[in-house]
Amino acid sequence: MTHVRVKIAIGAVVLLLGLGLLTFAGISKSQIYYLEVDAFLADDAFHSQRVRLCGTVSEESLTAAPSAMTLRFDLLGRQGRVLVVYEGIVPEMFKAGADVVVEGRRDEAGTFRATQIMTKCASKYQPGDYPAGRKP
User: Fold this and answer.
1) Could you give the CA distance from residue 97 to residue 35 in angstroms, rounded to a whole number?
2) pLDDT-based confidence at residue 94 (cuts at 50, 70, 90)
3) pLDDT at residue 73, as a whole number
4) Are 35 and 46 in contact (CB under 8 A)?
């Protein structure tokens, strides 16, 4: 009977080690840095990694090709800017001057190739005006 318990214990240890390895590999692949434009430009280590960049869409550089579903714009930080190219469905709230988060990586030419765009809308979460006598 002790051989059966040893085999079960060894099997359980192997199974737990395998699950632990899969969990670690999954977590490490899904980690992504969230940076502002200036921090991204200041550190070359991030240029070859997949990152999320936070900034403001430049009003002067925004060009769109609706038929190709392509956007091209500068993402502005406080001091620097990054050229972003995005191909895909454009969020409804996306516009020049908006704060956005783009996810992707920089290519060899220095262009940030975004695979996802998320808009930020702070005004959406501000308290509104209520009729007299009514409060939330």
Assistant:
1) 19
2) confident
3) 93
4) yes
User: Are the beta carbons of 73 and 111 closer than 8 angstroms?
Assistant: no
Strands 112-119 and 81-87: what pairing? parallel
CA distance 105 to 48: 7
Q: Which residues contact 41 (CB under 8 A, 6 or more apart)?
A: 77, 80, 82
Strand partners, 66: none
Per the confidence metrics, is the pTM higher than 0.70? no
Q: Which pLDDT score, from 0 to 100, does residue 62 have?
A: 85
Q: Please state, rounded to an integer, the average pLDDT across all residues of the chain.
A: 81
Q: CA separation (Å) from 117 to 46, 53, 61, 81, 136?
A: 19, 10, 17, 17, 33
Is residue 47 helix, strand or coil? coil
Note the pLDDT of residue 19.
Answer: 81
User: What per-residue confidence (pLDDT) applies to 124?
Assistant: 53
What does the block give as tokens for 26? Answer: 């999954």
CA 12 – CA 10 distance, rounded (Å):
5
In angstroms, the CA 36 to CA 33 distance is: 10
